[in-house]
Amino acid sequence: MDGGPKESGGMESFEHRQDPTDATARPAAPEVLARTVAAEFAPRTTYLNTASTGLLPRRAVDAMHTAVESVAAGRPADMFADVEAARAAYARLTGVSADRVAAGGSVAVYTGLIAQSLPAGAEVLTAEGDFSSVVNPFHVRPDLKVRAAPLEALADAVRPGTALVAVSAAQSADGRIADLAAIRAAARAHGARTFVDTSQAGGWFPVAAGDDDFTASVAFKWLLCPRGVSFLTVPADLGGLTPVFAGWVAGEHPWDSCYGPVAELARSARRFDESPSLFSYAGARASLGMLEEVGVDAVRAHDLALADRFRAGLDRLGLRPVAAPGSPIVSVPRLGARQRELSRAGIEVSDRAGSLRAAFHLYNSAADVDRLLDALDG
Known about the structure:
Layout: H1 10-15, H2 30-40, E1 46-47, H3 58-72, H4 79-94, E2 101-104, H5 107-117, E3 123-127, H6 132-139, E4 145-149, H7 154-157, E5 162-168, H8 180-189, E6 193-197, E7 214-218, E8 230-233, H9 278-294, H10 296-316, E9 329-332, H11 339-344, E10 347-348, E11 350-352, E12 355-359, H12 366-377
């Protein structure tokens, strides 16, 4: 599909480079978070399912509507500018420069990119039961040696000859948090690289992408973006990855790279961009901007307070969740079958492997927690 007319302004968007290091997300006071939530969100259910899909803030919905209307009117907005703004915002939120961030649509594609870069016979260490997008692309290469270990023992399982450790910062199924510091230390001691999926962490967890060789994240969960947005971070030297799916958007001068082989790949991580879902990135720009205004630290404090309230209530009911301290995801074994009943009552949670999974984010309140507890008690 043609990327659009060069005269639309997209060229300037691609060529412009921002240094994101001059601005960082600062914590907002609780009252600022409360005002933002009141202005941006109005769920019609008790929505406790962010680990599946985050709610879109009003400003993101409005931005996407404006973008769609611009195309319907025959005057397409410059949504490539939205891609660059979203890239820069994600860079600020994760503490790296924008030239280390690639923009795409899924984690699995970027896991596959990293898997493709490994030599035959390389050993990849993963966590048992981790999300398929973090694991499966390594398994479809039969010439790789893929080994799994329990999450809590992952650092101890790194050994001489391990080439890569791939793990989610927070586990999708139950919210357990990886000991990333120990995993990094063990990997470095054995000459291995690290690849961390932050899909269940970014937005509430203080992600420092520069601490790992590679990180990837979808943005439709805790980052509150539309589906179709993901990010990859790479080292400053681009990590030795081959941009095997590079198209015209991966060119240093994209509008001059539309036909035939790309003469010059982007000198930055943009060489790993997928052709972007532009309407989604119009919304992502707005969503990530909102998170920057509120501050990840404020969101984290809010989310964890609600999760702790839920855990305390479960204890009073004699129910024991999977141990996941410091996580806003709470999984209660053997209660997954109640998901449909709760949904009929207007309470949205997940059933994951037979467990009831609740996820608490900035638009949730103590009343939401208590309503779920009352329903479980009933």
